[in-house]
Amino acid sequence: MHLDGGCLCGDDFRVIQGEPKIYQSTAEGVRKFCGRCGTQLVFQTVGSPVLDVTIASLDMPDVLQPEAHIWTESKRSYIGTQDLPSFHNKRPAE
């Protein structure tokens, strides 16, 4: 699955309406979803201040510009990654 996401520090992100539902998807992380429609909003590794935010869930997604491709080890062959730095699995260290 291809997913447009962005990484933000936890203090830079807030939900302005409603309260997300939380699902512990693995021992390492939690996912937060819209309680009304089920849209995934964020993934967060336990103990990390960084949130992986689904770009399509933002009110103004076009104001963000991509800086890198991550988890390219699982990308489909038709997904191009030559335009930006690419990382085989995890994002680069902050």
TrEMBL record:
The keyword Magnesium does not apply. It holds the Pfam family GFA. SUPFAM superfamilies: Mss4-like. Residues 11-74 form the CENP-V/GFA domain. Keywords: Metal-binding, Zinc. Coiled coil: none annotated. InterPro entries: CENP-V/GFA, Mss4-like_sf. GO terms for molecular function: carbon-sulfur lyase activity; metal ion binding. The keyword Zinc applies. Belongs to the Gfa family. This is CENP-V/GFA domain-containing protein. It comes from Coccomyxa subellipsoidea (strain C-169).
